[in-house]
Amino acid sequence: MAGYIKVITGGMFSGKSQELTRLIERALIAELSVEIFYPRVAERVSVRDIRTRLDKKRHAVTFHEIETTQFASIGSWDSADVIAVDEAQFFSPQIVEAVKRWRHHGKTVYIAGLDMDYQENPFGSMGALMCLADDVVKLHAVCTQCKQHPAMISYRLTQDAEQIVVGESNYTALCLQCYDRVQMAEGGLRYSAVGSALSVD
Ligand SMILES: [Zn+2]
């Protein structure tokens, strides 16, 4: 039995977790068993969203919070029909082999993750996972500045330079034109106390 891999990707605020939830709900209606993996680094809004949305059917779903390097040793997925991974960009490259193995074992695999980090670099193993996938869906938020164009950039509102800074309030979604404009403007976007109502200095 051949498995199947679908990758749902795009920037922050683009609805990846909602789409992942929709696919999981669909699988549950079909009475399939579902295991959901997410990285320990990101017990965050998306995971809580998925838990809340699946509340009534939670008994049929198993959540696994795991370390980002832990994929090689996972065994409990053997009984699942459907395996969902959220925030896949945070996992170490071992995830690629795990996903291949799952497909060979006939699993349906749904993977949600950021395509790019805040500096437009491909994030973690998402590029490799997109190559492997049977289907790829790219979602876009709307730009929070021009409120018109599709957002490509998860723009970081803080000065941190590490690749991983978790927390939706630290980011906003920008289109490429607004990103370039903000990059050229001295000081970039101002970070308001409520994490919104931003403007170029
Ligand atoms: Zn824009």
From TrEMBL:
Catalytic activity: thymidine + ATP = dTMP + ADP + H(+)
EC class name: transferase
SUPFAM superfamilies: Glucocorticoid receptor-like (DNA-binding domain), P-loop containing nucleoside triphosphate hydrolases
A Pfam family of this chain: TK
EC number(s) on file: 2.7.1.21
Alphabetical keyword list: ATP-binding, DNA synthesis, Kinase, Nucleotide-binding, Transferase
Family: Belongs to the thymidine kinase family.
PANTHER family registered for this protein in UniProt: THYMIDINE KINASE, THYMIDINE KINASE, CYTOSOLIC
Record's protein name: Thymidine kinase
Organism name: Sulfobacillus thermotolerans
